[in-house]
Specification:
Blueprint: H1 2-20, H2 26-31, E1 34-35, E2 45-47, E3 57-60, E4 63-66, E5 71-72, E6 75-76, E7 82-84, E8 91-99, E9 104-111, E10 126-130, E11 166-173, E12 176-181, E13 184-190, H3 194-201, E14 223-226, E15 233-242
Antiparallel strand pairs: 1-15, 2-7, 3-4, 4-15, 5-6, 7-14, 8-11, 8-15, 9-10, 9-14, 11-12, 12-13
Length: 243
C-alpha cells in the first residue's frame, strides 16, 4: 500500500511539473515577461527571411523540437533557422535547451533579416548549443556550449551533458550583454567597446569577412533565432521581457 501511495504521489508531482512548463509564474507576469512559446503551437515563429513556418520544427514533449529524421545537406529537410516575429532591444530572454548525441545548434540574437544573407548568424552573434563531447566543435575552445560562438569562451564550464536540460539567460541593456548558463553569469561584454571589437576582429566575423554583415556584432536590436545545424534539439520555456 505504501508503494502504491508513493507511486501516485510521484505521478502527481510529475504532472504538476509538466503543467508549469511554458507558462508564466505570477512573478514573471509582474515583471513583464511574455511567452515566446505556448507549449502547443509554433505561433510567433517562422522561417528566417520568410513568412512561412518550417515543417521540420515541431512541438514535441512540451518543447520546440527540430526533427532531423531526414537531411538536406548539413541541415534537416524542411528545417532551416526559425526566427521570432518580434524584434527586441533592451531585453531579458530565458529558455532551456537539450541537445541530441553529437548535436549542434545555437541561439542567435540581434539578428537582422536581409535577403542578402542566407543565415542569421551572418548578421548576429550566437550563444552556442552543443554536445561538447560528441561533436567536433567541442575540440575548439570558442565553439563549445555556452560560448559566444567563435568570439568569447568561458571557464570554468557548467554545461550539463546530452539528455539534460540547460538553462540560458541573455540580458542586453544599453549595449551591455550578459550571458548566463545554468544560473551563472558566464560572459559579459559591451557592444562597440574596444575590447569587444578586438575579439570580433580576431574571429571569423571580422568586419571585412566575406559573406558576413559588415556591421556584424554591432547591432543592439534584432530578432532571436533558433539554429538548424542538422541535429535534433529541443527548446522550451522561452520567455522574454523588455527592460
Amino acid at each position: 500500500m505504501k508503494k502504491i501511495t508513493l507511486i501516485l504521489l510521484t505521478l502527481v508531482s510529475v504532472n504538476i511539473v509538466a503543467q508549469q512548463l511554458n507558462t508564466l509564474s505570477p512573478q514573471e507576469k509582474k515583471q513583464g515577461f511574455k511567452l515566446l512559446f505556448d507549449g502547443k503551437t509554433m505561433n510567433g515563429w517562422r522561417s528566417y527571411n520568410k513568412t512561412t513556418q518550417a515543417p521540420a520544427w515541431v512541438v514535441s514533449d512540451n518543447a520546440i523540437m527540430l526533427d532531423d529524421t531526414y537531411k538536406d545537406g548539413w541541415m534537416a529537410k524542411g528545417g532551416g533557422e526559425i526566427t521570432t516575429d518580434g524584434v527586441y532591444e533592451n531585453f531579458e530572454f530565458i529558455c532551456e535547451w537539450k541537445i541530441s548525441v553529437g548535436g549542434n545548434s545555437g541561439i542567435i540574437f540581434d539578428a537582422q533579416e536581409d535577403p542578402k544573407y542566407d543565415y542569421s548568424w551572418r548578421t548576429g552573434p550566437e550563444f552556442q548549443v552543443l554536445d561538447n563531447e560528441g561533436h567536433e566543435d567541442g575540440k575548439i575552445p570558442k565553439h563549445r556550449a555556452g560560448n559566444l560562438y567563435d568570439v568569447i569562451k568561458y571557464e570554468p564550464e557548467n554545461v550539463k551533458p546530452v539528455g539534460e536540460w540547460n538553462k540560458v539567460k541573455i540580458v542586453q541593456k544599453n549595449g551591455v550583454v550578459k550571458l548566463f548558463m545554468n544560473g551563472k553569469n558566464v560572459i559579459t561584454y559591451t557592444i562597440g567597446s574596444e575590447e569587444y571589437n578586438k575579439m570580433v576582429a580576431d574571429s571569423k566575423f571580422k568586419r571585412d569577412a566575406k559573406d558576413y554583415d559588415p556591421n556584424w556584432g554591432s547591432y543592439t536590436k534584432g530578432h532571436i533565432v533558433l539554429q538548424d545545424h542538422g541535429a535534433r534539439v529541443w527548446y522550451r520555456n522561452l520567455k522574454i521581457r523588455k527592460i
